[in-house]
TrEMBL record:
Keywords linked to the UniProt accession: 4Fe-4S, DNA damage, DNA repair, Hydrolase, Iron, Iron-sulfur, Metal-binding
Record flagged with keyword Lyase: no
Gene3D superfamilies given in the database record: Uracil-DNA glycosylase-like domain (3.40.470.10)
InterPro entries: DNA_repair_put (IPR023875), DUF4130 (IPR025404), UDG_Type-4/5 (IPR051536), Ura-DNA_glyco_family4 (IPR005273), Uracil-DNA_glycosylase-like (IPR005122), Uracil-DNA_glycosylase-like_sf (IPR036895)
Family: Belongs to the uracil-DNA glycosylase (UDG) superfamily. Type 4 (UDGa) family.
Domain spans labelled Uracil-DNA glycosylase-like: 310-470
Name of the protein in its database record: Type-4 uracil-DNA glycosylase
GO MF entry, a single one: 4 iron, 4 sulfur cluster binding
Length: 477
């Protein structure tokens, strides 16, 4: 009996036909599975399907077998449908089969399913898009050429749709092509290799990147060929670099070994012991304060940061601007407000006519608090206990600098200077006279708060923030 599917990967059609055959009691050796329309004089399309037995129950199979069918039907082997129906027949008539890990049919099906899964993974890893301009208007589309080993284009299309949802793209293969226009996936007939787009500028950039990340000391050619089989190389632009980079790997590795050591960036400079103040005494100078803050371990932050970051600016400054804590760049440089937030503050002070050297800049917290995300150190707001541990350093700094008034940039600075919680939005833009030493405090936003706003809201927020800072030019009222 000949059974023909409308499409080679028509799983629903296979399940429907297989159930009918199984219910009619047709054994596997009496079934010939075919794909697509008849192409031979020997194809017999006239043989009718057997009628269902009225009382025949639906076959029950393990859930793992359904998943096996989804993978196996994508395999290129023309005998896969015979294997699937044979396994279905045996599962229905040999219940013990599902518990036999050494069965030859099961092992063969599992090997084929793994080959399909591997091909799906390789397609996701080795597709390389090229930018192509189409039509008179030069509409941009990204096109890739790939030659899969199995029928995996439809199965992989949703992955590429999710990953590249914001761009128009097409993947061309010899058997089936898939295109995404930003709204819907479209399956098309296979293409010829001549349709492969020529290299673009992005390919040269990719080759430069690949050449620079190549690590000769970690080269393992056998493993590389296993993970990136040679048959894929003809469609990978970086494959042309593999031979010359591999040939020079030993020489480059030896050069790396012989090169002098790189000076580390995050090593604390030794602090002279005689600069540290005696226990219980206040620092007598800013240099002594910096040394003492650097050695401080009153909270855990000091043990993890590169160095303490104290303030900088002139003695007896008219205004002292106090932020929250140093960021990543400040931690490495040892200076306050040199990162993105500091650059925004420099811009504001330039518009207000304040030279940076005329203002004393400091932070409420002396050390950088962060959490690691991969290799990046991401800013983390200091807790209240950590701010309280650093408060004496800011107090000593104010006593040594003797500023006329204070500007609190953000809630952490305002809480440290005023000794209470401060709602910045409610109390911003006015002088507060609450300190015991008589110095007034002007509360406003920290510049990093503006950088976190959506782009459309930044201009208005910046103008309002600049108006707050402008109050510090006038006499304290």
């Amino acid at each position: 009996m000949q059974v023909r599917l409308a499409d080679p990967i028509d799983l629903d059609g296979f399940r429907r036909q297989a159930r009918q055959l199984l219910a009619a009691g047709v054994p596997p050796q009496e079934v010939q599975w075919c794909e697509g329309p008849g192409q031979s004089l020997f194809d017999d399309d006239s043989a009718p399907m057997p009628a269902l037995r009225p009382a025949a129950p639906a076959p029950r199979v393990p859930a793992a077998f359904v998943e096996l069918c989804r993978r196996l039907i994508l395999h290129r082997d023309p005998q896969r449908l015979d294997l699937l129906y044979r396994l279905l027949w045996r599962l229905a008539h040999e219940p013990a089969l599902r518990h036999d890990p050494l069965d030859a049919d099961l092992l063969q099906a599992q090997r084929m399913a793994r080959a399909v899964a591997r091909d799906i993974h390789k397609m996701r890893a080795f597709v390389r898009f090229t930018r192509v301009a189409e039509g008179e208007g030069g509409a941009e589309r990204h096109v890739a050429w790939f030659e899969p080993e199995h029928r995996i284009v439809e199965a992989n299309a949703p992955f590429f749709m999710r990953r590249f949802a914001q761009m128009r793209w097409a993947i061309l293969t010899p058997q089936r092509c898939v295109a995404w226009d930003g709204h819907a996936l479209r399956m098309e007939p296979g293409a010829d290799a001549s349709a492969r787009p020529p290299p673009d500028a992005g390919e040269a950039l990719w080759l430069t990147y690949y050449e620079h990340i190549f690590n000769p000391a970690r080269l393992k050619l056998a493993m590389m060929r296993r993970e990136m089989p040679v048959r894929y190389w003809k469609n990978l632009p970086e494959a042309a670099l593999i031979a010359p980079l591999s040939a020079a790997a030993q020489q480059r590795s030896q050069a790396m070994i012989e090169a002098p050591a790189t000076e580390p960036r995050r090593i604390r400079a030794p602090q002279p012991i005689h600069l540290l103040p005696a226990a219980g005494s206040a620092p007598a100078s800013l240099e002594e304060l910096r040394a003492a803050a650097h050695a401080c371990r009153a909270c855990p932050i000091g043990a993890l940061a590169t160095q303490a970051v104290c303030g900088e600016g002139p003695r007896a400054a008219a205004r002292m601007l106090v932020g929250e804590q140093p960021g990543d760049q400040e931690d490495l440089a040892g200076r306050p407000f040199v990162g993105p937030a500091g650059q925004l503050l420099d811009r504001a002070m330039a518009e207000l006519g304040w030279p940076r050297e005329s203002v004393y800049l400091a932070n409420a917290v002396r050390h950088f608090k962060f959490e690691l995300r991969g290799k990046r150190r991401m800013h983390k707001t200091a807790g209240q206990r950590e701010a309280l541990a650093c408060a004496p350093w800011l107090g000593h700094e104010i006593d040594l600098v003797q500023p006329q008034a204070l500007v609190a940039l953000g809630a952490t600075a305002a809480r440290t200077l005023l000794g209470r919680s401060v709602a910045v939005q409610a109390e911003r833009g006015r002088w507060l006279h609450e300190r015991a030493d008589g110095r007034a405090v002007l509360v406003t936003l920290h510049p990093s708060a503006l950088l976190r706003l959506p782009e459309a809201h930044r201009p208005a927020a910046y103008r309002q923030w600049l108006a707050d800072l402008a109050l510090a030019r006038a006499p304290v009222a």
